[in-house]
Request: fold
Amino acid sequence: MFNIKALILLTKYEQMSVTLKGDKKITNVLTIIRKALQINLNENIYGTFAEIGAGQETVRNFFRAGGASGTIAKTMSAYDKDFSDAIYGIEKDNRYVTQTRLNTMLEYEMELLEERISRVKHPDKLFFTYANTVATINFTKKFKGHGWLGVKFQLDPLEGYNEIVLHVRFKENDAKLQQETLGALGVNLIFGAFYMNDSPKELLKSLYDNLDKDQVEIDMVNFSGPRFTYVDNRLMSLQLVLNGMTNAVMFGPDGNNLLPAQQLYKANILTLRGSFRPVTKVNIDMFETSKKMFFADNKVTEENTKIIFEITLSNLRADGQINERDFLDRAELLCSLGQNVMISNFQEYYKLVEYFSEFTKARMALSMGVYNLVEIFNEKYYRDLSGGVLEAFGKLFNKDLKVYLYPSKNKENDKVITSNDLKVHPRMKELYKYFKYNGKILDISGHNPEFLDIYSRDVLNKIKSGEEGWEEMLPEGIEEMIKIKRLFGYINKKK
Reply:
């Protein structure tokens, strides 16, 4: 229950939750101070703040809002590395801006809170710990900065703890601005944890309240705990791309989200783009033959290689709106095959390669079919570039990149089409020859010719219609999974 003083504070800041856009009032977005105040005035929310690397920017908002004495148990910043190690221990990689460091901070601070605050004396308290470990922009401004944020919290004193963990990449060119952005983001995260936990999708959107996507990018999020047992973190990853919070997300075979920057750092990257609806023997044959070629390259080491099955947003929207069930069906099959999956907003390949180049200068390869390569040479995709197709190809092939081409079969005459036979627009013919004869485009050898008649769209239609014969077009184990879990609208019409 709020006291009189609290009500006065609430009234004082109520006007701050209203902004004007023309003559229209927008009241659904609370200011950062208003959010902090609402938490401060909840007599049961109580916790600690541990912030490393960009000042105590989040907790500062709670102090400024007023009424913080009932919310903040402790706030600290262990800036010195020796002090930080003395408190939280030494990380195996000797790094500080990492997810493992964040997890250690959250665990350590929560144990202290439980140890020092009596549950007998405060039976209704909802404990929380907020932590961040951040590196802001450097002096030369070549490194924009990034960081990890997380909140560990209760929604019932008798329940276990929930967690929301984020990774962010800063876009602003000023350290002070980045600090302020971090402070606002931290308040949004804590507010969302307590007041929007029943709607994770809306919670994600609210992280940008009073912020702009030009200020900060959120490229990974994970929800865990008793209140989030129903949350599929792969769907949360998809939401980040759909909402324009980032251009690409990754998740591993276990379904947990991965940080692309961490996975791709200085790595050799082999990427296969497709619909994987469902994954077929063609996809696996392309994967196996491409992998063999990639590992045979003297600039590639197997232990340093990341293989990615990539699906674009435009592919997910092939039927109009994105169907979450359809997305999860694809993800389920790829994860069952032990693959890392990327969802990206890069319809053009050169944008994907540019993205990879942010993290690695090592050799990369794209594995694709004949149709995809022909589309790369289609000028319509590059009309928004001042340099047109030449600019796009400069960005694509200027990197240490190879294209592995999987053959196709002409349905009319059964002729197998390779890089020697494919047809591009006459204006693109010489450009195509240039890249082919300079070793940028390589035909995949050792493929299984029996698989060239398999098309995923035909398999999908057969699954949905109950037509027989689709089972033998799929890798081992995939047929059973589709039938047992009734993926892609499968119905057993034999019953």
Notes: Residues 4-231 form a domain with the Maf protein fold (CATH 3.90.950.20).
